[in-house]
Automatic annotation (TrEMBL):
<keyword id="KW-0443">Lipid metabolism</keyword>
<dbReference type="Pfam" id="PF00378">
    <property type="entry name" value="ECH_1"/>
</dbReference>
<dbReference type="GO" id="GO:0006635">
    <property type="term" value="P:fatty acid beta-oxidation"/>
</dbReference>
<dbReference type="InterPro" id="IPR029045">
    <property type="entry name" value="ClpP/crotonase-like_dom_sf"/>
</dbReference>
<protein>
    <recommendedName>
        <fullName>Delta(3)-Delta(2)-enoyl-CoA isomerase</fullName>
        <ecNumber>5.3.3.8</ecNumber>
    </recommendedName>
</protein>
<comment type="pathway">
    <text>Lipid metabolism; fatty acid beta-oxidation.</text>
</comment>
<dbReference type="InterPro" id="IPR001753">
    <property type="entry name" value="Enoyl-CoA_hydra/iso"/>
</dbReference>
<comment type="similarity">
    <text>Belongs to the enoyl-CoA hydratase/isomerase family.</text>
</comment>
<keyword id="KW-0413">Isomerase</keyword>
<dbReference type="GO" id="GO:0004165">
    <property type="term" value="F:delta(3)-delta(2)-enoyl-CoA isomerase activity"/>
</dbReference>
<dbReference type="GO" id="GO:0005777">
    <property type="term" value="C:peroxisome"/>
</dbReference>
Length: 238
């Protein structure tokens, strides 16, 4: 599950409960509900910070839930259900009318890494936390929108290759060098402190949220096209 609180102009969305924060239908629905609420309450200067309790930011899709369906074909159907449902979270983050920050204080694997990368900024804890796309090790291909997002957000072809094709586990300092993460910090507390400071700086600009969302979509046309997010022109001041 997740919780949502508001501190001034900051929306703090936190994954709670299970330490793995596996993205199953329950958590996906909870996140979608929170993002819908955030969008409905957005005002100029609003900022989203997403964080998680425990050792993981998110350990990806809930494969145990899929396998519990019984037969292999039913397990695949459940996996496809999660893949399709999670598209809506990525689309919601790309079209959210405010800057977004992921405060990654634990491991972010597979769809969990995608959740982090779908934000505008990523701040990450140093030490043992990693970003990891293990699909090649699990014998699974990538959904089209995963591939498009990673190509859109990671500018180095070599970094994309190592991240996706080699299943490379990337720690914070290395992720900064690869251009995936914006900054690395020594502790979970310092990650959150830095995220709040950045959020307050961004919020202080009082940008119009719809303009932020449209500019974001224009930056990533491939992934937005796959998700069906269309551009529109906005001129708020002349």
């Amino acid at each position: 599950m997740c919780t949502l609180e508001k501190q001034g102009s900051l929306f703090l969305l936190t994954l709670t409960g299970d330490d793995d924060h596996r993205l199953n239908p329950t958590l996906i629905d909870s996140l979608l509900s929170a993002l819908s609420q955030i969008k409905s309450q957005a005002t100029p200067g609003s900022v989203l910070i997403t964080a998680a309790h425990g050792r993981f930011f998110s350990n990806g899709f809930d494969l145990a839930w899929a396998q519990a369906a019984g037969s292999p074909s039913q397990a695949v159907d459940r996996l496809h259900q999660m893949v399709q449902s999670f598209r809506s979270i990525v689309a919601a983050l790309l079209s959210l009318p405010m800057p977004t920050i992921a405060a990654v204080t634990g491991h972010a694997a597979a769809a969990g890494a995608m959740l982090a990368i779908s934000h505008d900024y990523i701040l990450m804890k140093s030490d043992k936390a990693v970003l990891y796309m293990p699909e090649v090790d699990l014998g699974m291909t990538f959904p089209d929108y995963f591939t498009a997002m990673l190509r859109s957000k990671i500018r180095s072809a070599g970094a994309v290759r190592d991240f996706m094709l080699a299943g490379r586990k990337v720690k914070a300092a290395e992720a900064v060098k690869m251009g995936i993460v914006d900054s690395a910090h020594d502790s979970a507390e310092s990650v959150m402190d830095a995220a709040v400071r950045l959020g307050e700086q961004l919020g202080g600009r009082k940008w119009q949220g719809e303009v932020c969302a449209e500019i974001r979509k224009s930056l990533y046309p491939e992934i937005c096209g796959i998700l069906g997010l269309t551009d529109r022109s906005i001129v708020s001041k002349l």
